[in-house]
Specification:
55% of the residues lie in helices and 8% in strands. The protein has a 3-stranded antiparallel sheet with strand order 1-3-2.
Length: 217
């Protein structure tokens, strides 16, 4: 399984843990709640759903609504020959598997491809796991920042003004995320959320937006 496919499976399981959905609604949630998936299409989503069904983590249930109908036309009478929409529901095994994934804190959870999605499900994650993921992400970005600074110091004289400005912009983006992570880590240590309320140990919060992606130079 590719890392990208693994991230999509994680997100699908996480969204279906909140409530059953059909494919159209699930894709919409992936696009709007988890911006990293804006480029994904039905061609990516449905093979993923099929694989999760085959593994026993999801079940398919007909909803009685025609496949081609949009939500605004839900009250219209179904036309003959149209298939009912399939609703995907998380099984007990799927929930257990997602909770196992949610507890993981290894290097993959710190990477650009995975961190934003993991962060979106922090409302369902225990505080100690959140701390390990946040600290791992900060450590990874600090390493990246050190490499960027060293590279810039070696090549500064050979860069034109625009390339130099692009390098500086990339460094500033990483520096901002490091500061943001440090603030989150301090809030977790103090047992408070960004809003000032006491931090929850776990909860069914809807996904929150993750940080913008950064790329290595």
């Amino acid at each position: 399984m590719s890392r990208r496919s693994g991230v999509l499976e994680f997100a699908v399981l996480g969204l279906l843990r909140e409530s059953p959905m059909h494919g159209y609604e699930l894709r919409k949630r992936l696009n709007t709640s988890l911006g990293v998936f804006r480029a994904f299409s039905y061609g990516s989503l449905y093979p993923c759903l099929k694989a999760l069904v085959q593994r026993g983590w999801l079940v398919e249930e007909p909803s009685g609504q025609p496949e081609e109908q949009q939500p605004a036309r839900a009250q219209a009478a179904p036309l003959a020959g149209r298939r009912a929409k399939i609703v995907y529901r998380l099984t007990a095994e799927g929930k257990e598997h997602f909770e196992d994934l949610l507890s993981q804190t290894g290097p993959d959870t710190w990477e650009d491809e995975h961190f934003g999605v993991r962060f979106a499900f922090f409302g369902q994650t225990s505080r100690d796991v959140r701390m390990r993921v946040l600290e791992g992400r900060r450590s990874r970005l600090e390493e990246r920042l050190a490499k960027m600074r060293a590279s810039l110091a070696r090549t500064r004289e050979r860069l034109d003004d625009y390339t130099l400005e692009l390098q500086r912009h990339g460094m500033e983006s990483v520096e901002r995320e490091v500061r943001w992570l440090s603030e989150l880590i301090e809030s977790e240590r103090n047992g408070t959320e960004r809003s000032g309320r006491p931090a929850r140990e776990t909860g069914p919060d809807r996904p929150a937006p993750g940080p913008s992606d950064n790329t290595d130079t």
